[in-house]
Design a protein that fits this description.
Layout: H1 2-39, H2 43-48, H3 60-69, H4 71-101, H5 106-119, H6 123-136, H7 143-166, H8 171-179, H9 184-195, H10 197-213, H11 216-221, H12 230-235, H13 245-266, H14 268-279
Helix pairs in contact: 1-13, 3-13, 4-5, 4-7, 4-10, 5-7, 7-10, 7-14, 8-9, 10-13, 10-14
Length: 281
């Protein structure tokens, strides 16, 4: 009797748990539903019934959004900015973390904690000094200035991940290469860097997501349409007195497609790399 009651209770507990998980899943999917529905509605249908599915699909929102936002120019700027930021982040962070991980003294430990402390520093603190510096260097409203800034914002956290992962790589591998006459640079790029593939893939994904979706840094440093990225051109649909909600959501859906495809192929590397970089060592 007690066994059957316990079995029934466990079944009810399992059903409740599944129902809660479904509810949470629907809650997270609801913003995507709103974005898709608004992007294929007319303004009149949006005003009449904001949450209902449209009776007639308005694909013209996508065509109008592409034309109004100069979408393909912004797409090119986003691709260039994201690709360059990822490449620069991987190069700078991996080399810097290698030096820190292999030198256990106060000087390099200080830099390690300096990078760590930058993680807790909000961009708003750096916003005005960075703007003034970039203006003096004449790299405001340029992609190189934006790429450099996005790389700098990401360095602290990614150096932290790299240091933890590099400490798990045996020193004997590089010592053998050094004994054979290899330089420090050749040892790093020929021996160490290929072993960093798990953490490299994780940082490629995280860095790409951060650079592609960035709005705050781009808004501060880029005001010209010729160098605007996708998050910035979406902002132009909202004015002081009017807002083109349907076109804005159409542009959002279009800008999500490339990064979602990229994330779909690379997501399996994220958890493993972050765990290895943050826990080991």
């Amino acid at each position: 009797m007690n066994t059957s009651r316990a079995t029934k209770r466990s079944k009810w507990v399992e059903r409740i748990r599944i129902a809660i998980l479904y509810a949470i899943g629907l809650l997270f999917l609801f913003p995507f539903y709103i974005a898709i529905v608004y992007s294929i509605k007319t303004p009149m249908e949006t005003a009449e019934s904001p949450l209902s599915f449209p009776k007639h699909i308005s694909w013209s929102n996508y065509a109008d959004a592409i034309e109004a936002s100069n979408f393909f120019l912004a797409l090119r700027n986003s691709v260039v900015t994201t690709s360059a930021t990822v490449a620069l982040t991987i190069l700078v962070c991996s080399m810097g973390a290698y030096v820190i991980a292999r030198n256990n003294n106060r000087f390099y430990t200080f830099f390690y904690y300096l990078f760590m402390s930058s993680i807790m520093l909000p961009f708003q603190v750096l916003m005005f000094p960075l703007y003034k510096t970039w203006a003096d260097l004449h790299i405001l409203n340029t992609l190189p200035g934006l790429i450099t800034s996005l790389t700098g914002v990401q360095i602290g956290y990614f150096c932290f991940l790299y240091v933890g992962f590099i400490k798990t790589v045996p020193r004997e591998l590089e010592e053998s290469a050094l004994l054979d006459g290899a330089s420090r640079y050749r040892t790093f790029f020929s021996i160490i860097f290929p072993l960093l593939k798990p953490i490299n893939m994780t940082i490629i994904v995280l860095s790409a997501l951060g650079a592609w979706n960035d709005f705050v840094v781009s808004m501060v440093l880029v005001q010209k349409k010729a160098v605007s990225t996708l998050p910035l051109v979406q902002f132009q649909f909202f004015g002081e007195y009017t807002s083109q909600v349907n076109m804005a959501f159409a542009a959002i859906i279009l800008s999500m497609i490339p990064i979602m495809i990229f994330y779909g192929f690379a997501q399996r590397y994220i958890i493993g790399g972050v765990t290895a970089g943050a826990v080991k060592g």
